[in-house]
Specification:
Layout (H helix, E strand, L loop, with lengths): L1 H47 L2 E2 L24 E3 L8 E8 L7 E10 L4 E2 L14 E2 L18 E11 L11 H7 L4 E12 L2
Antiparallel strand pairs: 1-2, 2-5, 3-4, 3-7, 4-6, 7-8
Length: 199
């Protein structure tokens, strides 16, 4: 009788072990599937959220029209679908190749989430018609200041950020102030790089 009980106990414990193992494997599989789905969504979001310009291609030369050597107006920019939950956008253009360190050419924030593009020659008004605010660039002005490298070929990074909030800052803020205010609210970012040389 005791032998039968021992066998029954062993069988029961073996059965419990299998149930626990299957349960853990199921949860692990579910976790992997959830992570995989989340990663797929993030990849799709990044693919859709892309900054482009009809004036120049990624890594291409910026036409003289948009620089200090000509009209010095901002280039046309466009982007696709913004990430779900986006409340506002920020656009910053800077030159990391400047001899004095990164030079800020444009700071634009509180761009409404339903705006999908910026036409050529955005005015230097402190607040645009769509409600976006102009920040102060390193030339000491509001709005866009085009490429004006002292020598060589410089890269110009046009960076677009999608936020889950509206910063509601006053016009005239610097890049540092805007980046500090958007901390913890970034949903996604994309960028477009253009080059310019005065040679």
């Amino acid at each position: 009788m005791q032998g039968v009980l021992r066998m029954f106990k062993k069988s029961f414990l073996f059965f419990i072990a299998i149930v626990v193992m299957c349960s853990c494997q199921g949860k692990e599989k579910e976790k992997v599937q959830t992570n995989s789905t989340q990663e797929t969504k993030e990849k799709e979001m990044k693919m859709e959220f892309k900054l482009t310009s009809s004036a120049f291609e990624e890594g291409g030369m910026i036409p003289k029209k948009y620089t200090c050597d000509a009209e010095d107006v901002s280039p046309p920019l466009a982007w696709g679908t913004v990430p779900e939950g986006t409340k506002s956008l920020i656009l910053i253009c800077d030159d990391p190749d400047a001899p004095v360190g990164t030079w800020i050419h444009w700071v634009l924030y509180d761009i409404p989430s339903d705006v999908k593009e910026l036409s050529e020659s955005v005015p230097d008004d402190d607040t645009l018609e769509n409600g976006a605010k102009q920040g102060t660039n390193d030339f000491g002005n509001l709005g866009y200041g085009g490429p004006c490298p002292p020598s060589g070929t410089h890269r110009y990074f046009f960076k677009l950020y999608a936020l889950d909030s509206i910063l509601e800052l006053e016009p005239g803020k610097t890049k540092a102030e805007v980046l500090d205010s958007m901390e913890g609210h970034l949903l996604a970012e994309t960028q477009l790089i253009g080059k310019y040389s005065r040679q």
